[in-house]
Design a protein that fits this description.
nine-stranded mixed beta sheet, single chain, alpha+beta, binds glyoxylic acid, binds manganese (II) ion, 12 helices, about 35% helix, about 425 residues
Length: about 425
């Protein structure tokens, strides 16, 4: 069989990267901004050039389908996302979409038989950059985000996702139809860059993802007393920022004390009010992102951080409000698909290792209604969500080959996947 082409992959990655709000410093393509909308158009045109039928649902998920011999069978899905965090790289998400395209190109060029339809899905807003909610498209597919919910989530300008979808002429009367039922999709496989350095350290080209950590996200608001930085003694002041700092360090201690196979806690966004050099902050608003591949352990960490924050607030005489944004379930990938991924690697004489994904992916939500698995290709120095993010095109092509072999197995398989 012909192999995946690094040149084609590079052409598509660069094609998408034309649509970028910060060409001078990495890639910024935030959902439903001009570059993202232009990139959607580009991707749809590329799918059409591959003879795929392209549709879009009411939240902007794009489905590009290559018909199989029997379209009455449930399809095989692959794909990922094309939105980015600010000043990102050009591979996180895009690698998975492009490898889906390359697999479809090869299936046609090599006339590879496939009974099932093969659909490359581009999920809307995997990144939470605009709406402070991750995996918007796949969340809606899983039923976790309903139409009413789109009215509650807003961007920095205070405009809701609902309003934006309406402005873009998405048919919101069809929102309920986004939701998928078990059986609608036979199997889903997502390729992604690793975003860690385990593959690089091991000198291996492929990671087969056994489990995906899920995030729990909170917005914490600490309210102290805004006052004069020189006028208020150290004993008298109620500094919201100092309290938040103590909370941050306590969170770090808690997560380290409750280790699972993989878990993390991050405070990634902090805002002080009024944000002036000679004013004691009256408010500090920050986010908490807790990840774990073990839901039980995550619940223990969440309980512990809430109690610890509350104790710190009490001792320092500040007010505390913790708002939960989401508390998502980790995913164990489907063993039958994992086995097929391993068999594909063996067939291609490509070495691999098992891996746990700390980052979340749309697969987390797809896994709620379909047998799902993922494979990773290496990230240089383990860096991602940064302009420094890099994977060689030849390494991505190796992943595309494994993806292609696995998709073909799945598209001709008639057994239930356990
Ligand atoms: C996805 O980008 C994540 O934050 O894991
Ligand atoms: Mn990302
Ligand atoms: Mn991603």
């Amino acid at each position: 069989m012909q192999q995946a082409s690094a040149t084609h992959i590079k052409t598509w990655i660069d094609g998408m990267n034309q649509y970028n709000a910060t060409p001078e410093f990495g890639t910024t393509r935030i959902v439903f901004t001009k570059p993202e909308l232009e990139n959607r158009k580009y991707v749809k045109e590329e799918f059409q050039k591959l003879n795929m039928e392209v549709t879009e649902d009411a939240v902007g998920n794009i489905y590009a389908t290559l018909k199989g011999e029997d379209s009455s069978l449930a399809p095989v899905w692959t794909g990922s996302h094309i939105d980015t965090v600010p000043n990102a790289g050009k591979f996180d998400g895009m690698a998975g979409v492009v490898c889906g395209m390359e697999a479809v190109r090869l299936i046609q060029e090599c006339h590879l038989p496939h009974k099932r339809d093969i659909t490359v899905v581009v999920y809307t807003s995997e990144e939470p950059t605009r709406y402070k909610m991750s995996c918007i498209g796949s969340r809606a597919m899983s039923g976790d985000l309903i139409l009413e919910g789109t009215k509650q989530i807003c961007d920095l300008d205070g405009r809701s996702l609902y309003d934006k979808l309406q402005e873009l002429n998405y048919d919101l009367t069809q929102f309920d139809a986004i939701k998928k039922q078990p059986g609608d999709v036979y199997a889903a496989v997502e390729l992604h860059i690793e975003q860690n350095n385990q593959l690089e350290k091991a000198g291996l080209p492929i990671g087969i993802v056994k489990r995906i950590c899920a995030p729990s996200n909170y917005v914490v608001e600490v309210t102290g007393v805004q006052s004069h930085a020189g006028g208020t003694s150290m004993e008298e002041r109620k500094d919201a920022y100092a309290a938040a700092c103590e909370m941050a360090l306590e969170l770090e201690k808690i997560v380290k004390a409750h280790k699972s196979d993989f878990n993390t806690a991050t405070i990634g966004s902090v805002r002080v009010v009024p944000d002036a050099m000679n004013v004691i902050p009256g408010k500090c608003i920050f986010t908490v992102d807790i990840r774990d591949c073990d839901m039980e352990n995550k619940q223990i960490v969440i309980q512990a951080f809430k109690e610890a924050f509350s104790g710190i607030a009490k001792r320092r005489g500040v007010e505390l409000a913790i708002e939960e944004k989401n508390n998502d379930l980790p995913l164990t990938c489907n063993p039958s698909i994992l086995k097929m991924l391993e068999e594909s690697c063996e067939e291609l004489k490509t070495a691999y290792m098992p891996i746990i994904s700390g980052p979340y992916h749309d697969s987390l939500f797809v896994g709620r209604f379909a047998p799902t698995a993922m494979l990773f290709v290496p990230s240089k120095n383990g860096i991602s969500h940064s302009p420094e993010e890099w994977t060689d095109y030849e390494q991505i092509a190796k992943g595309a080959d494994v993806l292609l072999h696995t998709i073909c197995r799945l598209a001709n398989c008639m057994q239930p996947l356990n």
